[in-house]
Protein 1
Amino acid sequence: MHGLSLERNPIDILETGKSISDVIDGKIRQLYSGSEEPFYVVNLDNILERHLQWISLLPRVKPFYAVKCNNTTAVLKMLSALDTGFDCASKAEIELALSLGVKPDDIIYAHTTKPLSHIRYACAHRVNLMTFDNEEELLKISLVHPQAKLVIRIAVDDSKSMVRLSPKFGARLPTVRQLLERARELNLEVVGVSFHVGSGCTKSSAFRQAIEDARCVFDVASFLGFQMRLLDIGGGFSKIGDFQERFEEFSQVINGSLDEFFPPVSGLEVIAEPGRYYVESAFTLAVNVIAKRVLPNHHSSLMMYYINDGVYGSMSCITFDPAHSKLEPYPHRAVKKSEPRYRSIIWGPTCDSIDKITESYWIPELYVGDWLLVDNMGAYTVSVTTDFNSFEKAHIYTVVTAETCCAPYCFASKVSLGHLKVFFEHWPLFHSFSVQ
Ligand code: PLP
């Protein structure tokens, strides 16, 4: 079996009128005096909302959710029921998607530098669509998966993105023709072009330029005799903070550029690989203050709090994800405006001093046993934890409203949700939080 977990934890039905913070309150009350384990509450309604926004704003673009971003089973299963495809980056991610019933044709193996054995695995399981950006990859694919449908990934201008990917991946435009000719010589089938403008892209013009670049590659490939039919516009979407309004603007620019460079009559299939967009705001993390030190200071006390999740656990994103470079856990309890604030350092639980969450953070005094919450913890968190010091990983509690659970159709978006209903009918559900 793959290294990724295949949990089938029950999903809680959220009673009408209850909110996610009621769920968190209820969970904390349940844990009181029993355990102080960190936990996430996942709001599946939030994921549905994002999906409906996607299909209404980007009707030509089918999302292939990037599993790397968050591989929680219920999330993947729900997205599959919403008819998204999946971007997998390894054998284990492919195995996980297939084990959840995803069809091989709904998977793109979107990694341009793959281990030979993983390509062989993809072949054995009829996962045919995969990306490449170099000649060595073509040789490996021709050896173990000659029937693959190949997508050439090009490097694009990602200088306006928080996380740049083009230094590591993507063929430069001047090298594209030679690569395509090599694919021809090897008798391989190239069907499309992909790019990724970088995670947390701040400029819609990056998409326009990338789509225009992709058009050039389509023309070269068609000239060489390939039947080009797929454009993959990658990931890089977000809707939190400054990005809230930008998603609509991005969608307009993408739709306009697609219509200009790939008019609908071309019959082109357009896909994307959104990760962050789908899950970022669906996850709230709750952590517990497990220890405290007060250091006398000449002005006021310096508080040092130690919480039970940190940089080696759910918060590793602090070290690599600019979207999370500043996490600000806030007290779960109600805080009075008049309460004095103290300069506080919040540390994670491990024995390493880089396990620090905040440096100079002014908050009211906390006590051992208090809970802190962190919002927007869905992207690049649960999938990037380590086992360092073997602290318990945050448990994941998933909730959904009865409306989402039972809705066969979304009238506002004119979308059938029949598969979603079937998914919830076959998943263990309960009402543990409704009585709190
Ligand atoms: N596709 C590929 C190939 C990636 O490398 C990534 C992220 O690194 C994604 C999709 C998802 O990107 P995002 O979370 O910015 O949407």
Protein 2
Amino acid sequence: KRPAGAPDRSLARPVTKVGIVGAGLMASQLALLFVRRLEVPVVLTDLDQERVDKGVAYVHAEIDKLLAKGRIGGDKANRHKALVSGALSGGAEGVDAFSDADFVIEAVFEEMSVKKQVFADVEKTVSPECILATNTSSLSITEMAADLEHPERVVGFHFFNPVAVMPLLEIVKGERTDDATLATAFATGKALKKTTILVKDSPSFIVNRLLGRFMGGVGRIVDEGTPVPVVDSAFAGVAPMPPFMLLSLVGPAIALHNNETLHRAFPDRFYVSPALERVVAARKAAYYGPDGSLDPEVEALLEKP
Ligand code: 3HC
């Protein structure tokens, strides 16, 4: 059955090579998913070699885990590993690596100007039909595409963390996204074995808009003096993951960015927690340490008036 709002699937174009801009947490999970499900060459790019190498190493390590669990055979593991490569973006190497890609997805820092620049650079090297997808969690697809020569090939392709496990994929149609792009996005989402839904190009789409309301709510409770572990313990058995655990999984900076975007769009309805702002300013990546207890530095930041 065709998902609601999806155009005729006969318009979909084949995806034979995937480019991923960014090699961080989300990008490397995307590389793993694309290579496993599409079995086509996937190139991860980033601005420095260390990040690129780390991204590729993550994919290889995850494939090794699947092999060890007996989920895939040795031949498939080797084939998938060989399909993943890394390149520097911005330099000639990165440009060459993308020139024959027909589906490029960006998963770089959540900042409109950065994402626009990425797409402007990619557009110089790929064919006019190459899809430019964005994994943005909150920003406008229409605005991201506005200055491009071919804005009709830009589409939102929003995954959830952990990518391998979460079934949903929000597909976002910008004002100028055409039917061939949308049909390709839906066909690709299906090939990736995700549940695809068409969502409006509005701040934070569906899930993060609702999540932003919830995270603002628990953020306010902490700002009013309730300790984080107490708030989290209130959710035991209620949610798959307590709120501040979830915030640590997605990253405090992403969570803050989401609430800021929503607050800008709907100032009366969304709360931006000053404690969360302090945690992000201190560049903390998680609230909890590896042993599962609250990071003492985070605790001190939360208590600060
Ligand atoms: N990467 C890959 N696989 C993972 C993983 C990860 N980070 N974390 C867990 N898994 C896999 C495990 O390998 C396991 O797979 P298996 O059964 O095939 O071996 C399976 O998930 C279940 O894991 P566990 O038994 O260890 O743990 P749980 O049962 O507690 O499930 C969870 C873990 C699926 C992460 C669950 O806690 C959960 O659903 N949490 C909520 C996640 C969520 O809501 N994500 C959305 C965040 S919002 C977002 O991403 C939007 C963005 O824009 C910010």
